[in-house]
Write a structure and sequence with these properties.
This protein has 251 residues and is an alpha/beta fold. It contains 8 helices and 7 strands. Helix 3 packs parallel to helix 4. It starts with 11 loop residues before the first strand and ends in a 7-residue tail after the last strand. It binds nicotinamide-adenine-dinucleotide.
Length: 251
């Protein structure tokens, strides 16, 4: 059976870092489509519970689960608890991410490692943990949030660029490994999106690089994730990178 055949309200999505920004918008859009949503968060339990409240008030089902997804044990608990609660996982959105920006010459090992641990190893850990149940179900949609910076580089972001480029390689390799069992793996590469992460970015410095002339919204990125997770076309798309970037990167 393909994912298209399973009603959306029987499907379960896990969104890492789902309490704010892009992850919040993804959790809400999938919740509004009828999927049961696990809203993972690291620290902000109030914000995660708020997302759960909005989904349930709209007639959906959701739970908030704490867990630092850079840690293997926390990831195992997150996925195990999600399976215990909802019985299956159809969609994994690897969204959690951080920046520790500074020029390479000043970059400390912990700035490098912290970003790699969450933005790349976290994606590996969560993907590995859901792969078993998805292969067994013979269905699944894994969507990794990369970045244009992983495609084009950015001064001050050697750690972040390396992690986000790594996510693209990981996406393609795993896509090839699991395709025969109906599991798709794709990446979304946002440009500059207005969230807490880009709070300090000065619009006047970057608008010249964005053909559409403005920052994107979290909802615009969430729309691409919704497409990959729930549109029938998502069943036949794998190993791809989708830019939601106002035209910053044109292949
Ligand atoms: P944000 O800082 O608003 O949100 C990041 C989320 O990750 C938060 O919910 C945070 O609680 C969570 N998080 C942080 N550490 C965590 C951990 N150890 N375990 C679990 N969750 C953790 O940022 P955002 O802009 O919403 O970014 C979301 C994703 O999109 C990130 O992967 C980011 O790299 C990517 N991205 C953002 C932009 C942008 O312009 N905002 C552009 C390209 C890619």
């Amino acid at each position: 059976m393909s994912t298209v055949d399973l009603p959306l309200n029987e499907q379960v999505a896990v969104v890492t870092g789902g309490s704010r920004g892009i992850g919040r918008a993804i959790a809400l859009i999938l919740g509004n489509m009828g999927l049961k949503v696990v809203v993972n968060y690291a620290r902000s339990s109030d914000a995660a519970e708020e997302v759960v409240k909005i989904i349930t008030e709209n007639g959906g089902e959701a739970i908030a689960l704490q867990g630092d997804v850079s840690q293997a044990e926390a990831v195992d608990t997150l996925i195990k608890t999600s399976l215990e609660k909802f019985g299956r996982i159809d969609v994994l959105v690897n969204n959690a991410g951080i920046t520790r920006d500074t020029l390479l010459m000043r970059m400390k090992s912990e700035d490098w490692q912290g970003v790699i641990d969450l933005n790349l190893t976290g994606v590996f850990l969560c993907t590995k943990a859901v792969t078993k149940p998805m292969l067994k179900q013979k269905r699944g949609r894994i969507i990794n949030i990369s970045s244009v910076v992983g495609q084009m580089g950015n001064p001050g972001q050697a750690n972040y660029s390396a992690a986000k480029a790594g996510v693209i390689g990981l996406t393609k390799a795993v896509a090839k490994e699991v395709a025969s069992r109906g599991v798709t793996v794709n990446a979304v590469a946002p440009g500059f999106i207005a969230t807490d992460m880009t709070e300090k970015v000065k619009a006047e410095d970057i608008l010249q690089f964005i053909p559409l002339g403005r920052l994107g919204t979290a909802e615009e990125v969430a729309g691409m994730v919704r497409f990959l997770a729930t549109d029938p076309a998502g069943a036949y798309i794998t190993g791809q990178v989708f830019n939601v970037d106002g035209g910053m990167v044109m292949a």
